Amino acid sequence: xxxxxxxxxxxxxxxxxxxxxxxxxxxxxxxxxxxxxxxxxxxxxxxxxxxxxxxxxxxxxxxxxxxxxxxxxxxxxxxxxxxxxxxxxxxxxxxxxxxxxxxxxxxxxxxxxxxxxxxxxxxxxxxxxxxxxxxxxxxxxxxxxxxxxxxxxxxxxxxxxxxxxxxxxxxxxxxxxxxxxxxxxxxxxxxxxxxxxxxxxxxxxxxxxxxxxxxxxxxxxxxxxxxxxxxxxxxxxxxxxxxxxxxxxxxxxxxxxxxxxxxxxxxxxxxxxxxxxxxxxxxxxxxxxxxxxxxxxxxxxxxxxxxxxxxxxxxxxxxxxxxxxxxxxxxxxxxxxxxxxxxxxxxxxxxxxxxxxxxxxxxxxxxxxxxxxxxxxxxxxxxxxxxxxxxxxxxxxxxxxxxxxxxxxxxxxxxxxxxxxxxxxxxxxxxxxxxxxxxxxxxxxxxxxxxxxxxxxxxxxxxxxxxxxxxxxxxxxxxxxxxxxxxxxxxxxxxxxxxxxxxxxxxxxxxxxxxxxxxxxxxxxxxxxxxxxxxxxxxxxxxxxxxxxxxxxxxxxxxxxxxxxxxxxxxxxxxxxxxxxxxxxxxxxxxxxxxxxxxxx
Length: 601
Known about the structure:
With 601 residues, this protein is α/β, with parallel strands linked by helices. Among the domains are: 344 residues, Alkaline Phosphatase, subunit A (3-Layer(aba) Sandwich), CATH 3.40.720; 75 residues. The protein contains 15 helices and 19 strands. Strands 1, 2, 3, 4, 5, 6, 7, 8, 11, 12 and 13 form an eleven-stranded mixed beta sheet that branches. A four-stranded antiparallel beta sheet has the order 14-15-16-17, with helices on one face.
């Protein structure tokens, strides 16, 4: 009764300000909020929550975001049946930190999941870095609320800390009660015949050093055999032993990249090593459908972390060669088919109206991903400048944001306000009936009022864009003037439109010679120049100094919330450690098939 009186009162106030005709949207939104409140008060089940996150997908790759040459009918339909965000932003432009922020609602630097230099993503299943146990994910909170919590697909947040079986960073230690998928991520090394990717330059140097050691050993042995060199026999044997150890260490840690990193786990058990990429799409779909069927009679949270559309872009025969954009387009269209099958499983189990569904990408498309034979292997970021790895430019962080909940969220609604992937954390927690932690900084804000239309404004006045641990840019939603400002303090040195965009780097660096520092900073008005093509000058923009000063104040306030934490990407954490390597069968020759028997691959 009190809620109904509140709705009536709000409608009367709106009527006095706007007139009755302008208040019907407000009344509808308030009624939706009232309905959710009444369901909770009556003890009705909370909604199922289905989160689908693509890997390296460009915002310009989808039809519902303006693409008319790649076919994505299932994702387009999802957008038409729900709410589409046009200014949805990743908290980081690379996989590991972006996903850490998504899971926790906090910038990755708060958990040590971003780097100040060197590696910016986890490199090995056998490393000791990863999402710390003291971080709280949305899965952990919903698990405590009685939800079944599953993760199917990519993790890339670490596995173990001190021993192979401690699984301190594993999904099951972060609130998920079921996991099936890759603890790491796809890389070129996962597909035989593709160019090496993980530490490729270091591996090349080690191989050359191994060759020189071999030449030196053979020279010593020949000189000893022919009496030309007075070399003690023990020295030759010692050098030979050193070469064997060096080659063995190199081969174990680098020659086995596919075997070490490209594997599938079910919960704590390795079930396929190395994984067969040709079967991975079908296996993951089967797991998703099975999970939905097993849990359809109880509320569930299912995080489907797709392997599409990350290189090496392994696509099934049915979709190969069918798109207008080569192997990348084929992979996007297969991804859309996969999303359609997942949505079909929701519908067939009668869960359509009780499921809150979300689709996004972890960051923008990878501009530097190219191959001499296959051409462009990365996505298209539409009108937005930059791409994967670039912390400030829109192309690296602006991603799809699609939400559907039939009967609760309005169909066909578009939201042009700044939002973040970190907002999913408090949104999911609220829908699941939980409480956000009060003992730490939470950077995300619940999207529920914005999605329902109860408010027209984002809860974010400022958003901060990082490359590693370096702040590269910040945006200000100047509500009084209706303008959206973007200030760049640092930008990567890249050349749009071709390979080698970042001077030969696989991903643009965050600091050093690969970036340009701007003083005064670059200023863009995204409300008029979303492509960031025309930086404003103090002479041409009367508000230039006022805007830069106001954003600078916000940056100082934001920086004051930073506290030191252990760096998960330090050299000691990032290195491969044989005693941490997940393995089935006999180490180091780990090998098993999906049925648990020896693999013949």
